[in-house]
Amino acid sequence: MTNDHHELRSERLVLRPWREDDRAPFAALNADPEVMEHFPAPLTRAESDALLARLNAAIEERGFGFWAVEVAETGRFIGFTGLSVPRFDAHFTPAVEVGWRLARESWGHGYATEAARRSLDHAFDDLALPEVVAFTAVENVRSRAVMHRLGMTHDPADDFDHPSLPEGHRLRRHVLYRISALTHRRVGTAG
């Protein structure tokens, strides 16, 4: 594999490994209650820094992961997008997921869809994966809309209770979306 996994580019965005100067804006993103609405809780600075270290380590270990995302024109950090291997057992694991988390001021510009589409290109064209999944809490309509725009499909029979969340937790029930390499190519050529 070539070193092009260290940075991916789309029309407006750069997906890249994490840098030291990402720590403060990443911590601000993870502390924002609106950004973290569909996660168990906002993160403290220490939790955010630990997450950043894990994300960068995954990129180094696997050659892919959740990359830092910046706007190419300005270099402004806006969040993360990329590929990950879920760390829990479920009926669909082992799997590779596509995911994203963007700062609130970056919502509504199509950045999540653009960065996730570039991540899927990498998954299918460079890594030769047969399928990629995405999942979120049932009520997360914004992320579900991105999954639809990516051409991912949802079968209610695939929905699951997230094993990291306790019985009765408001976010426990999750939806699962899938996309195959063939479907991604078809969606890409149609768009």
Q: How many beta-strand segments?
A: 9
Strand content: 15-25%
Given the structure, what is the number of helices? 5
Helix content: 25-40%
Strand order of the largest sheet: 1-2-3-4-5
Q: Which structural class is indicated by helix and strand composition? A: alpha+beta
Largest sheet: 5 strands, antiparallel
> Might you state the CATH topology name?
Aminopeptidase
* Distance between the ends: 28 Å
Report the mean per-residue pLDDT as an integer: 93
CATH structural class = Alpha Beta
Please, what is the CATH homologous superfamily?
Answer: Gcn5-related N-acetyltransferase (GNAT)
Q: Roughly how many Å is the radius of gyration? A: 16 Å
The topology string of helices and strands comes to: EEHHEEEHEHEEEH
Q: Judging by the overall fold, what is the CATH architecture?
A: 3-Layer(aba) Sandwich
Runs in which pLDDT lies below 50 for 5 or more consecutive residues are: 1-5
The figure for the number of domains is 1
